[in-house]
UniProtKB/TrEMBL annotation:
Similarity remark: Belongs to the short-chain dehydrogenases/reductases (SDR) family.
Region (Disordered): 164-191
Ranges of residues in domain Ketoreductase: 32-210
InterPro entries the record matches: KR_dom (IPR057326), NAD(P)-bd_dom_sf (IPR036291), SDR_fam (IPR002347)
Name of this chain's protein: Ketoreductase domain-containing protein
Naturally occurring in which organism (per UniProt): Apiospora phragmitis
Claim: Oxidoreductase is one of the keywords in the record: yes
Amino acid sequence: MASPTPSYTKLTYSATYPAIDPTLPALSTSGKVILVTGASGGIGRAASLSFAASGPKSLVLLGRKPDALAETANLVRSRHGDLAVETHQVDLCDAPGLRAVFDSVASKLGTIDVLVHCAGVLAPVVPLMEADPATFMDSYKTTVVGTLALAQAFVGANNQSAAGAAGHHLPKPDHGRHPVPALPRSSRRRTPTCACTTFTPADFLVWIASPEAKFLHNKIVFASWDVEELKSRETAIVGGPPGTGELWLGYQGFPRYISGQSLGRP
């Protein structure tokens, strides 16, 4: 029998639900450029469809497999025929190629408003002494080093785009606000044997990139958690001084001081 699944919220979901419906006006991405990595399949394809439903200005899909990437694009176009969709075949580990793609997108479309990072390689989950170093390194290179290259390309291209548009008094892109990481592959509700569909985390990604979820900046959350309960706990989650609040990783009791100033902990 599987162990009970811990959760921050009383309610958890294994299927999408009204509060994270990407067609909600509050979750609209109208006028925004959305870029999705790992769009060839899985959560990346699902996220592409969910963000397409939120009504962006443009949807940019990245992936390594051209045929699968084209299939995702065709699925989006079949449901949202008026949406501008473009695809780019690129490997996250190809830093120059990645930067070229981002520079091209930003030059043509302007600031990339939301980056949804769904690409990565998960090494087999086995006991440490049974792990294959070669397989582990392949996962590390793609998931960690590739993510570094992605962040550099994203920020660099947006900085360049903002600098070029400075004469038009456009707002500077908020790099810390909108990058959205991939979420857990599965989540559960009440029965631990119920696997969720990809549309729970995909629709949740649209919500997490919306103004409603601004209070979760720099926090760690699960796609299965009930967003209404999360919003009701905004004060506790945000906290006060740095190092306070909930849903963040750190040392218990650290920090107590910043620049010699006490954070007021007993």
